[in-house]
Design brief:
This protein has 385 residues and is of the alpha/beta class. The chain contains 14 helices and 13 strands. Helix 2 packs parallel to helix 3 and helix 10 crosses helix 13. The longest helix is centred in the middle third of the chain and has 17 residues.
Length: 385
């Protein structure tokens, strides 16, 4: 393919931003914007949004976005059925060089892969997690049942895929045997460049220990509460969780905090706007991601970009970009005593936080979405040779 020719890409996702959060939503929104603004890739974005809502086209300037209104919530039956009808037909309208699936090619886009091969486009699939996560969504057998079916159907379609993108070496290792190694590429998630415009904190003598992101069992919020309760910080600091709760997790965490005697020092807030969240991150003393497993860890990288000291699980993606004891800290969140000791040391040493936070900002700059988009463009060119 001519190096100077514009790459024609169809980017297929599930729910479109801002109706989806987490890594899938971040990749969909920031990657397509960065690819489009590079001037090297013409992006057609296909996904769904809730029926009856007004779609924010202004957020997608420069992108040929084709939102499909569907009934029900994210991953509802109506959403899935509408997607399966609309997605394949979109492939018949235009010739594409790259079809990039931001969701596993399971029930939602089962038939799309057939059209991809017939039109000679290269098919790329992002694998954002691992099957083990399903087993850690406790308390909802129906969810686990359908999630396992989704993985099984997806694995059955993997022979059609030209390249798999995983976001960390940890995911690559855990998908060994499920994915053909020669077609697996590690490209990390990114962080918005505007976070680097905020000044580094000159002081951070606040008393808030922050943990933000989805409140679900796999994220290990209960492990943080146990460590907080075991530390002396529970007398002087506040533990703040920000995020939406699923599967009754928040209620169980509130009960745990009460039983451990830290209920009055533990707060929960729902997911908030990006600007509001940035302010809370900057005012916190430390940001903690205590997941039982974490395929990548975008909250860790976002906090680092704002110059904050982070404590992150060593079970997953953060090990790729956090140098333990240098620009952040990695822990086994199940080791309550060691976890509590580290929390106490970080929260009581402002000089340490300033040194670590400055190095964290420097590390995070390598992960600006514009740089990550170039890695994807390099992969596209490689496949199209």
């Amino acid at each position: 393919m001519d190096e100077g020719r514009l790459i024609r890409e169809l980017f297929v996702t599930g729910r479109l931003y801002p109706w989806v959060i987490g890594g899938t939503g971040q990749v969909q929104y920031h990657l397509t914007r960065s690819l489009s603004s590079s001037g090297k890739c013409g992006v057609t974005l296909l996904g769904t949004y809730p029926l009856g809502e007004k779609f924010p086209f202004h957020l997608y300037s420069g992108i040929d976005v084709r939102p499909i209104p569907t009934p029900g919530g994210r991953n509802s039956l109506g959403d899935l059925l509408a997607s399966n009808v609309a997605f394949p037909f979109s492939m018949m309208e235009t010739e594409y060089d790259i079809v990039h699936l931001n969701v596993l090619p399971g029930l939602r886009v089962l038939t799309l892969t057939q059209f991809v091969k017939r039109r000679n486009a290269k098919l790329i699939v992002n694998v954002h997690g691992v099957p083990d996560e399903v087993n850690m969504i406790v308390g909802d057998p129906l969810f686990r049942f359908f999630a396992k079916i989704h993985w099984s159907v997806s694995v059955g379609k993997f022979s059609w895929v030209d390249a798999f993108v995983v976001n960390s070496n940890w995911v690559k290792q855990h998908m060994n045997g499920l994915l053909p190694a020669e077609r697996v590429f590690v490209i990390p998630n990114g962080v918005p460049s505007n976070l680097f415009t905020y000044a580094l904190p000159t002081r951070d003598d606040g008393k808030t220990i922050l943990c933000f992101g989805d409140i679900v069992p796999v994220k290990g919020k209960d492990l943080l509460i146990r460590a907080f309760a075991s530390s002396r910080l529970s007398r002087s600091h506040t533990l703040l969780f920000i995020g939406n709760s699923n599967f009754g997790t928040k209620e169980r965490l509130c009960e745990l905090a009460k039983n451990l005697g830290v209920e009055s020092n533990t707060r929960f807030l729902p997911a908030m706007s990006r600007n509001e969240l940035v302010d809370v991150i900057r005012d916190s003393v430390v940001c903690v991601t205590p997941s039982r497993l974490e395929p990548f860890g975008i909250p860790v990288l976002e906090a680092m970009a704002l110059g904050k000291t982070v404590i992150a699980t060593r079970f997953g993606g953060p090990a790729d970009f956090v140098s333990d004891g240098v620009d952040g800290f990695l822990i086994d969140p199940r080791d309550t005593e060691a976890f509590a000791d580290l929390l106490g040391r970080v929260c009581c040493d402002e000089s340490l936080r300033h040194t670590v936070g400055a190095l964290a900002r420097r590390k995070a700059e390598r992960y600006a979405w514009e740089r990550i988009a170039q890695l994807y463009l390099d992969l596209y060119r490689r496949l199209l040779k």
